[in-house]
Amino acid sequence: MTDTAHALGTSRTFWELVERRAALTPDRPVLLQEDRTLTFEELRSGAERAAAGLHGLGVRPGGVVAWQLPTRIETVLLAMALARLGAVQSPVIPFYRDREVSFALRESGAAHFAVPGVWRGFDHTAMARDIGAPGVFEAYDTLPAGDPSVLPPPPANGTDVRWIHWTSGTTSDPKGVLHTDRSLIAGGSCLAHALHLSADDIGSIAFPFAHIGGPDYLVMLLLYGFPAVLLEKFALPESLEDYRKHGVTVAGGSTAFYSMFLAEQRKRPQSRLIPSLRLLAGGGAPKPPEVHHAVVAEMGVRLTHGYGMTEVPMITMGSPDDTEENLATTEGRPPEGMEIRIVDGEVRLRGEAVCRGYLDAEQSARAFDEDGFLITGDLGHLTGSGHLVLTGRLKDVIIRKGENISAKEVEDLLHGHPDVGDVAVIGLPDAERGERVCAVVEQPEGAGELSLSAVTSYLRAEGLSVHKLPEQLEVVDALPRGETLRKVLKYKLRERYSGTVK
């Protein structure tokens, strides 16, 4: 990290960070979207005018404002306007609907709710009114605006809770995760430190800015003073035009994004998919080593992967100067200030980037151990060089006849099979064995027919123990995925196949 970036990383609040960057490089761009450009000074001044407009709507320091907006320049301006006011903001993923949105509004105690109107064919304003949302206002092309002279002083304390992010509810309601400005700045600093970026880079935000990765990435832009391309909708090959037009050097998001870029590259192997691209980076989902090696070999870029979660936006990150082996098989190393403790194979965390807990006090009490370490539920170990290797989730361990089987181990091996595009290995209830191993496969275009015997023969040739071999194979057109980082939703597969017997 440069001296300037390190100094900016000591900012107490988001707004202090915005002001310090605007003073350093006011005319440099920070956000690029289609034919629009926003500079660091325009981010500061535009957010301040929007803060005055929000003040006119009755938003005050400490007041809770929820927003459900797509990845747009206006969304970032609104988030920073709330940071200027010292309000508590609760971003909601744009794809959530009545049940999840009602829950988030009720649990957070939001007094205002910003929506995009009709977006991608869905009327968010009508939904907000139907569920009785408070203080509804639209914030898509325009934002509330006013005279900044009416504003109270900006917040000075960066350790108050000012962000409520939501875990993706799968088998239960989402959990409201409590963050401070300082915890998010610490998380973004970790990302920036690991990737070794410079003011000459051009990044990209192709995932919902409402995700915890949104403010995480914005911190990195503010620390280093480089811009990012915003994509309201990510789809390939359509989005490639934006990457090429703006000369993006750093892209990514999660493993699903890597695979989508790789699939497009394979359609034109003789030319670079994005000529300016030099680095793919991301996290949020497991990264099979085979995917890493394929991206590096076929796209001609570096690939660095990290480990983060809503509760801790950045825990470890691969660095471009890591060895190829570490980049392929680990999640990188933690930055200074992030403590990792392995207890009975489980990863536990303590540091400034760790959340303050949950809205639900009982959930918070269960989330931390007696030494203040966050209990993640992830399984892993640290190597001699300090790199973290994740081996699965406690809930993702299949127990067959009393033997523990790592779903990730089987998945990583199957990613090397030429007729497997993506795969999810799950445990299904079985009266005789407790659980049986089921592999659910999404095949690449042009793949041949896949049988269970072919899968097990391949895995045995790769050295997998017999007791870990799948006993059931399901081939699907597409694995069910979440809308944010495109993670596979295994609970849906368990629901679909729990009643089947093969």
Would you spell out the secondary-structure blueprint of this structure?
Blueprint: H1 3-8, H2 14-24, E1 29-33, E2 36-39, H3 40-56, E3 64-67, H4 73-85, E4 88-91, H5 98-108, E5 112-115, E6 118-119, E7 122-123, H6 124-130, E8 136-138, E9 161-166, E10 176-180, H7 181-195, E11 203-205, H8 213-224, E12 228-230, H9 240-246, E13 250-253, H10 255-265, E14 279-282, H11 289-299, E15 302-309, E16 312-317, H12 324-329, E17 339-343, E18 346-350, E19 357-358, H13 361-367, E20 374-382, E21 388-393, E22 397-400, E23 403-406, H14 407-414, E24 422-430, E25 434-442, H15 452-461, E26 472-476, H16 490-497
Parallel strand pairs: 1-12, 3-4, 3-5, 5-8, 11-12, 13-14, 14-15, 25-26
Antiparallel strand pairs: 1-2, 6-7, 9-10, 10-19, 15-16, 17-18, 18-20, 20-21, 22-23, 24-25
Helix pairs in contact: 2-3, 3-4, 7-8, 10-11
CATH topology of the domain at 3-182: Rossmann fold
Assembly category: single chain
**What topology, given as strand order, has the largest sheet?**
2-1-12-11
DSSP summary, beta strand count? 26
Low-confidence stretches: none
CATH class of the domain at 3-182: Alpha Beta
**How much strand?**
15-25%
Main sheet characteristics: 4 strands, mixed
Count of helix runs: 16
Mean pLDDT: 92
Helix content: 25-40%
Q: In one word, what is the shape?
A: globular
By CATH, the architecture of the domain at 3-182 is named 3-Layer(aba) Sandwich
- Which structural class do the helices and strands define? alpha/beta
Radius of gyration: 23 Å
Distance separating the two termini: 54 Å
